[in-house]
Amino acid sequence: MADADRKPGEPALRDLVDYLARGLVDQPEQVEVDEVSEPDALVFELKVAEDDLGKVIGKQGRTAKALRTILSAASVKTRRRVMLEILE
After folding, report:
1. pLDDT average, residue stretch 47-55
2. How far are the Cα atoms of 49, 58, 69 from residue 54, in angstroms, in the given order?
3. Which fold has domain 3-87?
4. Would the pTM count as exceeding 0.90?
5. Residue 31: how many CB atoms within 10 A of its CB?
6. What is the pLDDT of residues 32-46, one digit of tens each?
7. Strand order in the sheet with 41-47
8. Are 84 and 13 in contact (CB under 8 A)?
């Protein structure tokens, strides 16, 4: 979703995912966040360097779960389901 397509006050969810992921990894320049709009949901696909994958997922998936929780809370105003997929 381009900045021009955003409604006033709608959170920049893609930027949030990007910001959080860059803070977790050793190679922030390799962080990519793609936005895929589906009829019933908005999906963010997160790609990081292979060496940083464990940092984004965390022990027993705790970091990934925390990222998804933050994204879900931030997306409440959009009234649309938002999902985060971490790609290898």
Report:
1. 96
2. 10, 6, 18
3. GMP Synthetase; Chain A, domain 3 (3.30.300)
4. no
5. 21
6. 999 998 888 899 999
7. 32-37, 41-47, 81-87
8. no
